[in-house]
């Protein structure tokens, strides 16, 4: 039965490396459980097998990436076996890949205060590469965008769609149309208000010189378009990346959530409402400390 499955993989134009990897991973599983390919296996059997790989009686535990690769091979094999009526039961239906303790938090990257200050300096000093672009205009616009992403926690599409009428400079608040057309209102801090005020004053000057700016209803425009597109914003942000740290617009939203939790003494509900999260569990992810936070905590222990 196993060889029939392998032949099926080869018909699907799987690379020889993939076919060999799947075959070896499945054979290891069958040998560990001392069963034939058509032997009956339960989800409990699989879970015990996984536990043995993570907590072996001898030697080092298997890498999580290797275990997950083997699980994927087993999912494919048992799914094929049930589909072709070789087996009646698929033990892999309830089995999920393993996550490392730090995996979720590692996906959430934010800027430290030092990194944010360094970024502002790069925005100021980075030369304009495109011909015909006003360096002062680009600097003012890019700086305002970075502040709005960081101090209001906007998603990149939300920022692209912010209109002049969404900014209430008198009451110091921003109307944001989020996911599912849900509307939320975010207060402007004094810092953000000043940055947006400066940009709006500069924008008003540009509207007297550029027709597409005068006609635009959006807060941010591009060199030729009345609206700065999502892809344009992404490319602009990425252009300020460092060799070892790629910047994305969503990283500033992460930064907003992280900084706001600190400012509110970990008031998750306030941050959830400000960020527009529909589920508070999404906000709770930002409570996890970064690796550098953990390292600093360990270093702060008493020294003898």
From TrEMBL:
PANTHER family: PHAGE INTEGRASE-RELATED, TYROSINE RECOMBINASE XERC. Gene3D superfamilies: 1.10.150.130, Intergrase catalytic core. It comes from Neobacillus ginsengisoli. Residues 1-82 form the Core-binding (CB) domain. This is Integrase/recombinase XerC. Residues 106-299 form the Tyr recombinase domain. Keywords: DNA integration, DNA recombination, DNA-binding. Coiled coil: none annotated.
